[in-house]
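ok so i was messing around last nite and threw this chain in just to see what happens. nothing serious, just curious
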Amino acid sequence: MTKEEFLKKYLYDSIKIDDIKDNNIRNIKIKYFNMINKVVQDEYRISDKELPKEYDRVIEKEKIELEEYYDTLDDYSIL
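result:
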């Protein structure tokens, strides 16, 4: 699986966290799911105008972490 396919599957496509077999990927997804929920619920600190920017920042961090994990894998076929 190429890095682009990997990111499409785990970052851009809707995938249920429970359906992810790789524990490291699942933990990354849970971490950023919780961060996004925190951003959305923090209505006192984050204005409606800033919400999309905060969301994009979280997604970018998730992307970087997924890419870093992808780069550590020896056998991409297990994904």
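not much to say yet. The radius of gyration is 14 Å.
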